[in-house]
Predict the 3D structure of the following.
Amino acid sequence: MAKRKKDLADMELATVISFLVLGWVSGEYLQSRYDDSNTYYDRFLLDSPYNLCRDPLMAQANVSATSSASQRTPDMARLWGGSAWTAENSDFQQALNIDLGIIKNVTGIAMQGRAHSEEYIIEYRIQYGSNGKDWIDYKEVDGSPKLFVGNVDGDYVVRNDFDQPIIAQWIRVNPTRWADRISIRMELYGCNYIPDVLHFNGTALIRRDLARFPVASLRDTVRLRFKTNHENGVILYSRGSQGDYIALQLVENRLLLNINLGSRLETSMALGSLLDDNLFHEVVISRERRDVILSVDRVRIRDRIKGDFHKLNLDRHLYIGGVPNVEDGLVVFENFTGCIENMYLNHSNVIAGYKDRLGYDDRFYNYEDVGGVIKGCPVDYFTVPVTFKKPKAWVRLTGYEGSYGLNVSMEFRTYEENGLLLYHRFSSEGFVKLFMEDARIKVLIVAADIPQVELDNFDQTYNDGKWHTVELAMSKNRAVLTIDRDPMETRRILEIATGAYYMIGGGLHREAGFVGCMRHITIDGNYKIPSDWKDEEYSSKDDIALESCHVVDRCTPNPCEHGGVCKQNSREFYCECEGTGYTGAVCHTSLNFKSCVHYKNAHPESRYAETIIDVDGSGPLAPFPARCEFFPDGRNITYVGHRNEEATKVDGFEEKGSFQQTIYYDATMEMMEALINRSVACVQKLGYDCKRSRLLNTPVGYSDNFSPYGYWVSRQNRPMDYWAGSLPGSRKCECGLLGVCFDPDKWCNCDSGHDDWLWDGGEITQKEYLPVKALHFGDTGNPLDRKEGRYSLGPLECDGDTMFDNVVTFRKDDSAIELPQIDFGQSGDIYFEFKTTSQKTMVLIHSQGTNGDFIMVSLISGNHIQFEYESGKGPQGVTVETSYRLDDDQWHSVLVERNRKEAMVIVDGARKGQVKEPIGPVRPMLLDQHLFVGASKDYTDGFVGCIRAMVINGVIADLLYEVNKNPWGLYGVGTGCEGKCKNAPCMNGGTCKEGYDHFECDCRWTPFKGPICADEIGVNMRTNYMIKYDFKGNYKSTIAERIHVGFTTTDPKGFLIGAYSDISQEYLTLMISNSGHLRLVFDFGFERQEMIFTEQNFMTGQYHDVRIERFNQGRKLMMKVDNYEPQIYSFDESLKSSADAQFNNIRYLYIGRNETMREGFVGCISRVEFDEIIPLKLLFQEDPLSNIAATPETITEDFCGIEPVTYPPEEEETRRPPDVDEEKIEHLYRTTNSAILGVILAIIFILIVIFAVLVGKYKNRHKGEYLTREDEGAQDAFDADTAVLQGKTGHQVEKKKEWFI
């Protein structure tokens, strides 16, 4: 059959008729003949592939609104009108309703705000319906309401054309985002709609024989509209003699498409929900070879048809509305009940051709009516629904009063577990209540002289959103409850007399009312259409919606990610994430570590672990089990196992590669590929033990055909031409590469065919080919000979995780990395790790959209992570405060997530904060600008520190690439986590405190001070000076001391430093001898010791640095002076093994001299340390301690003539100027008219010259070269007397002289 199909696919005839799919014709539908030319033109607009359906529709429309401001009525909402409609209140409940009078084909909308104002809508959604009550959202392809882009001011017109036209009479515009106020001027565009419709009664159908004109198509398009109140039914079916078929059917109020191209592999696609609501739904099926798209009410899914064939071959019958017999591909066997309208098969209107055969070619529209199809779509008044919108809603209907029996039936659909369906109080004593409890239907009967009776006979739940029929019949001693045509009878002693009223859906005090839809409410055989209900028969119009069902299926398409189970009620949906490996409101956040390195970071003491890892976090790849091993040398190995890790025997396979073993891993190939790409290195051990069994069949020339007996297959399904331990393309094993094979003429040990066991193997290190997908072996003879082999394949081993090596340092608080825009959509997340020492508020991440949407992640005060965002409902935020510091220069992780239900922040995998999404339309977050990492988009409030492992929606953001992509780097950002302390700027043992944009040196535990611990703390000692440190009761006893002192002198008086115990009389003194040598004397109770350093004279006035250290339990002493080799002294000869070498009860520490000495040291002393005690720093600090004293008290600090070392200043880092496109600038100059430019410059020059002349004349208007006797300074006087008084020269002015003696 397959061969016949392939032959047919190549026939020229099949190519010619490939466009005649399912009976539609290519171009011949234009033979339609209509007496009315207007009708013909309307159908042409509807059927035309061109966008000709764009007539204005608002002129004849009736416009209403939910509210209106004064003198801003809905009638003013006309495009280019003088005023506009303005809502009285600006909130999400405001809407403009347009009644077009009849059903129209609406193709576009144009919006305008109020003229010359800031009153306009920025964003809006559209709903449509047939009666102004049954509103349906115009949806995105993912099922969420589509949000249309509005205006940017009050005057500019913004037009949106619909991808798929709206076919409706009523249009509602609901603003979701606006400027100052909601104001609208608008126009709808479209044309008349011609409904060609047939009604099918559940037994009728139409069919066409395809034997004469069979179908062999590569591409198909099917469009139709249908409405029904039945949840099952076959809509379209056809099949071919080669096993091809296409089946479109309604299954439990969802649309199911089954298609098979003859490969015996069925492809199924299901879409839609609540399609049995008796409203028209639009269906589009589009196939291009094996790619197929199914769309229901603009919600779209796509799939790839299974198998290898591309053509759909149909040569049996084409059925519409049902099938006469059971056929392949059908799930339900009921025929369709309802109306099918405007069914197009590749632009051919089948129903129009069936209804008007004179206008269409009978060769392609010869359909046979089976069972009585009705032209038109009759109204079924029994299916008119009513919606109970709130628990307090109720309907009160009347029945026969005083009857001894009752019969009540209804159909309902709901997602609530609890609610009252029916309550009736008898005229006699008692009542009956039909209600839902825990989604089960129960009946409570209370009557006179009998105990209370509760009927709970149906072990099933009914809150699944489907229509269910319930009927309660009661008579004497009998009650029958029927649900979905399944009766359950109860007999009790029971007599009733009915009352007058029946409460439907609610109306009882403290009783949960029903929330959902009902229809066909019948009491004692009487049915009253809801539109005929009087006002007093139901609670209010706010609680009850007549002639429409407002139940919404929030779980279709499933909003829960990663296989989460969606549950819902009348208000919201919620996701059950158990067993998925994910958590959160929509099962978006992974519960598992991203790698073994991630696990190690959280468990630093671990050495081995078996865990679950999720390499892409919230991405589409599922978690998988792995083994982690951590080594002291820093290696972190991830092991991914498989089913064939044990050594496996190969015997009885003689042909080359005839033994095949497919390797099944604990992870899919996509998961392992992601792991391998993220790892630093990957290997896999492979070995083959052989006895007379050849492997690669070597040697073989590189130009010869390579035909091995055994080989391994890479993950690309490529047979590899080398064995483990060797190199690609070598055609060798490891021994052949090293030249140590058992047979020197062979390239593998096994190729020698030796009688005893040999082995070839090693590690496959080329990670681009890993993991091993399959193994093939041959040359193992039969079970009776001596040929045999055994293979062993180890797990995949991968080292490291480059995600955590993707580290950058922000050195400037006005620097940032600009990443491409991100898609946060309905749900998105960002994971990253940071470390810093700054306590100021810093922006870590910022992105914004042109519509005002934004996200921002900030570190506040060093212990708060704040996530702020907006998606059209005002700014929202969630903050997590930690009990510890986040500015401690340690790595901390942050995960921020926003979905349609909540926003969430998780810090260090444990501390969580979340906020619910505000009430309002669920909209995707539109961030169409760059994502800024390290600062805001204005380069302010920037982060200073390191960031690594940034993952956005499961995809790693390559920060290193962004920094290195230009040769000049990136301003203020460096690779790795390296701050200012990397060059060890702090001297003399000072501790560098990293600031990343600066550094600070902690000199507390050094005898220095200054910005880099290089400034001397010294004292210029005189003969009467003394500094004394008193241990004050905390007597110090040491077995090892560390002494440091620097000095300069020319006089051997006194000593440099000394320690003394008045309790044990033990002491230590460091001094300059009379000969100018350095002398150390001490007595620790075992024997007086004296060491003299004679390498240099120390009285020359030069500065010297001395370090002394006693070690080895006090038995050895090291003295190092300046840069001389240290001298080590041992006291083993004078100190017995059992002797005590401890310096006991040290009470005083002296500098310069002690109280018993008349003359002290003369010179400068600095850098004094005795173990942890730094006496000079303690003396000269701002508030010196009471246990250190100086004699005299006027001793001042001195730097001993040593100039402090300064750290060389860093070169100032500046931002690179923006690149200038010189070609564009030259183009602008070239396009400028040189003559015009020259004239303009000449005019400007002349004007400047004239202006300069006028200014000069004004400045010199009183100057001249003439002789006058007029007093200087009197030119502005009013009269002569004043001129004399003001004059500076003249007869009354005397020349003054001054004399300096």
The chain is about 10% helix and 40% strand. The two ends are 135 Å apart (CA to CA).
